[in-house]
Amino acid sequence: MKLIIAIVQDQDIPSLIDDLTEEEFRVTRLASTGGFLRSGNTTILMGVPEERMQEALKIIGDNCQTREITTSLLTVSMPGDTYIPYPLEVQVGGAVLFILDIEQYIRI
Ligand code: 2BA
């Protein structure tokens, strides 16, 4: 058994959860926030049998798109304590995955 921790853009979540649950994967979703953009994203937790890992990764890959996001997070400081927003383009996603070995999976 493996644990997939996946950080996914909110827009991709409805179709991703539909496809995973349709294929009888168990999923928990948590509201999360990216440290860099400081905007909402979703973290999903999935306990997956090893023999179904490729299937799970394919569904995640098929549903999570890469997007270019323009943010004005950075500022340029000017004389007199004035800060001018500086547009910055970043590429977000598809999904960021952490995959861990699970010692035990118990449902009582
Ligand atoms: P954010 O931290 O809001 O980052 C959004 C996107 O901004 C990142 O996309 C990346 O392209 C860029 N970025 C992040 N930190 C940066 C930095 N210090 N300098 C320049 N650009 C930076 P992704 O890499 O696709 O990450 C999407 C979200 O996944 C992140 O949102 C964060 O919530 C999570 N994430 C990514 N890598 C992570 C890691 N190593 N540990 C924990 N969370 C991670």
> Which sequence of strands runs across the widest sheet?
2-3-1-6
- Kindly provide the name of the CATH class of one domain: Alpha Beta
* Helix coverage percent: 10-25%
Total helical elements: 2
Structural class computed from helices and strand pairing: alpha+beta
As for the CATH topology of one domain, it is Alpha-Beta Plaits
| H and E order | EHEEHEEE
Principal-axis shape: elongated
Q: What's the story with the biggest beta sheet?
A: 4 strands, antiparallel
How would you describe this structure to a colleague?
This protein is an alpha+beta fold and about 110 residues long. The protein has a domain at about 1-65 and about 95-100: Alpha-Beta Plaits, CATH 3.30.70. The chain has helices at about 15-20, 55-65, and strands at about 1-10, 30-35, 40-50, 65-80, 80-90, 95-100. The chain binds ligand 2BA. The site of ligand 2BA has 11 residues, from strand 5.
